């Protein structure tokens, strides 16, 4: 085991020992973070908080295009579809990958009429034209080779999953990163390859019982460069190592944030608070975080920051009042405190 792999294993051991996993709802908070960052790499400017409101409350994000919002909603639904598909224990196939891509591109895909024929990216159909990696970039595999390459990829992935030692955490992560790299290198679709490949990576991680990894928007430049270097040098260990190091950094950051949040609590009710938080919606949790930051705000101010109606904020606070927070002082001049 090399030094990067050893560091990952030690970081995961610390992550598990910290107790963070008991307060994480991977189907909501963590998933929404994954979706937000994956679409941000493709140009989306929607924040994680805005996505929580969009996904859970159906509140459109002001100042953001419909296309941008649909990109995020589609990717969220594609993730949920993929997580449900795992439960069926089926082998990976070209048909499944195309269905996954169709979910990703449902509202933002287009029909194409090219020399190779007609195809629709919103239906996840394989490309029938050649594409390149951006303006002036190297061309990807010729479209005539895509179907066979994708079939070969599925056969390889199924064989690897069947033989891998699930107790070897580092190798399991490397398999997920390798699958991501191989699929995005084939570039089976005319658009959405990055999102679909990162989605496949997370599906494999979930299948292997791993903590999901996130390619954050802050690491976009390093991530893309590692992909380019791996392709040009025909050495996938470059992107694997980059992804391993990014995942280690993300986990370390989450451990630090969690420890700081515990240190901020001055009494012995932290475990009760954590248990309660997991039962609340993302919007209610965001409201609590805002109350912690600005206990003096009025209902109108909370509503403005969260882009909610005043009546909605009042309903949430009524639910939280007396269990997690309490009012100190008058309605006009008082403030909120955590119980």
Brief summary of the model shown:
With 339 residues, this protein is mainly α.
3D architecture notes:
The chain is mainly alpha-helical and 339 residues long. It is built from 14 helices and 4 strands. The chain has 2 domains: 3-258, Orthogonal Bundle (Fic-like fold); 270-338, Winged helix-like DNA-binding domain superfamily/Winged helix DNA-binding domain (Arc Repressor Mutant, subunit A, Orthogonal Bundle). The strands form 2 sheets. Strands 1-2 form a two-stranded antiparallel ribbon. A two-stranded antiparallel sheet has the order 3-4. Strand 1 (111-114) and strand 2 form a beta hairpin. Helix 2 crosses helix 4, helix 4 (66-86) runs parallel beside helix 8 and helix 9 (220-233) packs antiparallel against helix 10 (237-264). The longest helix is centred in the C-terminal third of the chain and has 28 residues, at 237-264.
Give me the secondary-structure topology:
Layout: H1 3-18, H2 26-41, H3 48-57, H4 66-86, H5 94-104, E1 111-114, E2 117-120, H6 146-163, H7 169-186, H8 193-207, H9 220-233, H10 237-264, H11 270-277, H12 282-293, H13 299-306, H14 310-320, E3 325-328, E4 335-338
Antiparallel strand pairs: 1-2, 3-4
Attribute tags:
Fic-like fold; Arc Repressor Mutant, subunit A; 5% strand
The shape, in one word, is globular
Number of strands: 4
| N-end to C-end Cα span | 47 Å
CATH topology description of the largest domain: Fic-like fold
Total domain units: 2
Give the C-alpha Rg.
22 Å
- Strand proportion: under 5%
């Amino acid at each position: 085991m090399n030094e990067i792999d050893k560091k990952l294993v030690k970081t995961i051991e610390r992550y598990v020992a910290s107790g963070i996993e008991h307060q994480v709802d991977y189907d909501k908070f963590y998933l929404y973070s994954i979706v937000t960052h994956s679409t941000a790499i493709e140009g989306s400017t929607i924040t994680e908080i805005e996505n929580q409101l969009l996904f859970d409350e159906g509140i459109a994000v002001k100042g953001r295009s419909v296309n941008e919002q649909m990109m995020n909603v589609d990717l969220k639904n594609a993730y949920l579809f993929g997580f449900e598909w795992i439960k069926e224990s089926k082998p990976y196939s070209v048909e499944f990958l195309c269905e996954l891509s169709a979910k990703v591109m449902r509202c933002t895909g287009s029909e194409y009429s090219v020399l190779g024929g007609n195809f629709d990216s919103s239906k996840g159909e394989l490309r029938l034209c050649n594409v390149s990696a951006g303006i002036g970039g190297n061309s990807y595999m010729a479209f005539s080779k895509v179907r066979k390459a994708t079939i070969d990829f599925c056969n390889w992935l199924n064989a690897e999953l069947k033989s891998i030692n699930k107790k070897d955490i580092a190798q399991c992560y490397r398999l997920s990163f390798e699958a991501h790299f191989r699929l995005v290198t084939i570039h089976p679709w005319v658009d959405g390859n990055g999102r679909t490949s990162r989605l496949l990576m997370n599906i494999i991680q979930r299948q292997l019982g791993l903590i999901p990894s996130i390619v954050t928007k802050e690491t976009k430049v390093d991530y893309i460069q590692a992909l380019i270097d791996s392709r040009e040098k025909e050495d996938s260990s470059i992107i694997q190592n980059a992804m391993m190091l990014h995942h280690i950094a993300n986990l370390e950051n989450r451990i630090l944030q969690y420890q700081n949040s515990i240190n901020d609590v001055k009494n012995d009710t932290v475990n009760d608070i954590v248990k309660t938080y997991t039962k609340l919606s993302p919007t209610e949790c965001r409201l609590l975080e805002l109350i912690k930051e600005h206990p003096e705000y009025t209902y109108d101010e909370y509503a403005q920051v969260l882009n909610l109606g005043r009546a909605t904020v009042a309903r949430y606070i009524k639910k939280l009042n007396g269990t997690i927070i309490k009012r100190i002082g008058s309605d006009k001049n008082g403030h909120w405190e955590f119980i």
